[in-house]
Amino acid sequence: MSQKQIVEAVDDGGDTLKFLSDNGFFIPNFPDGTGIDGVRSVKIRDDDILMCTYPKSGTHWVFERTRELLAGEIIDDHITKVEAFMEMVPEEKYTDLPSPRILNTHLLMKHLSDDVRKKKIKVITVLRNPKDVAVSYYNFLRTIPGFNYKGEWKNYVRPYFQGKFMYGSWIDYVLDWEQVKKDNPDLPVLTLFYEDIKEDQMREMRRICEFLDVKRTDDFLSKVCNNTTIAAMRTLKEDVSGAKVFRKGGVGDWKNWFTVAQNEWFDQVYQERMSDCPLQFKYTL
Ligand code: A3P
Fold first, then answer.
1. Which of 122, 189, 260, 284 is 20 to 30 A away from residue 104, measured at CA?
2. Whole domain around residue 14: which residue ranges?
């Protein structure tokens, strides 16, 4: 039986944030959201492409690039990944999208339809270093209308990394997906890193093309890059609700936010939980 309830997280300064606990997993209380049970029952097509990311890892960016690479044309419209953000919008919103659709979610594999694994659909994951994610998430939270989160950075970092907020802890998310990859060696998964895309976008675009099995010229790839800069996307894609997705778009902003003590604390947490994980993250370029 589905168990949903509104819960409130309290940061270290007493500021609060309300969201939904859905079967024990924390997600925003999206007005039209179907919840985890709804996402589990989504009809998956054989040629669906699924983007799985922890929030603030570059989902909008990679979605748009993947979309244009698939289409083989430059697209100038206001559509974003929200069109098929499975836990946010009802399935009817993306049922009629032409194949291949690009579905996306911040949920875990266990929350998704078994057909993702049975049909072995293509999965793209985007990972980003946790310190920049924490900063991005903090700034985003404070702009989401209706959330009214006013917490200070110094009171946010610890509860954030402890998974008290929506989508839980970055570490739990990343370890969960690493396990999924290990347990499902036949599932086609492309793992991208935000920092790698910043470092060499053409190389990473070629990786996406190869994964999608589409042939695109370098000239086209560079047109896609130019059409999906943060400035271009800010102009065309910013959410009318006021939530600010397109902020700085760089690597290493965390240095402007983390105190020495916070940094040492998090490095220790990382060491304790991630020492067996082979993933390597770049914190500067
Ligand atoms: P910052 O807040 O660090 O700037 P998501 O799409 O998963 O919500 O991730 C949002 C993060 O990706 C934000 O990071 C945002 O600025 C960055 N981003 C969005 N579009 C981008 C682009 N075209 N180029 C680089 N970064 C981008």
1. 284
2. 4-274
CB 161 within 8 A of CB 153: no
Pocket test of ligand 1: the residue of 51, 61, 255 to mutate, having most ligand atoms within 8 Å of its CB, is 61
Tokens in use for 88? Answer: 């946010």
Render pLDDT for 89-113 as a digit per residue (tens, 0 to 9). Answer: 999 999 999 999 999 999 999 999 9
Number of domains making up the chain:
1
The rounded Cα 196 to chain-centroid distance in angstroms is: 16
Residue ID of nearest Cα to ligand 1 atom 20: 61
SS (HEC) of 117-182: HHCCCEEEEEECCHHHHHHHHHHHHCCCCCCCCCCCHHHHHHHHHCCCCCCCCHHHHHHHHHHHHH
Sorted by sequence, the CB contacts under 8 Å of residue 5 that are 6+ apart come out as 20, 21
DSSP H helix total and E strand total for the chain:
12, 7
107, 25 Cβ separation under 8 angstroms: yes
Phi-psi region of 91 (alpha: psi -120 to 50; beta: other; left: phi over 0): alpha
pLDDT for res 129: 98
pLDDT tens-digit profile of 149-176? 999 999 999 999 999 999 999 999 999 9
Q: Tabulate helix, strand, coil % of the chain (nearest 5).
A: 45, 15, 45
Phi, psi of 79 (to 5 degrees): -70, 135
CATH number of the domain within which 91 lies = 3.40.50.300
Q: Is 281 a member of any domain?
A: no
Atom 27 (ligand 1): residue with closest C-alpha? 249
* Mean pLDDT score, 263-283: 97
Handedness of CA 220, 233, 194, 210 (dihedral sign): negative
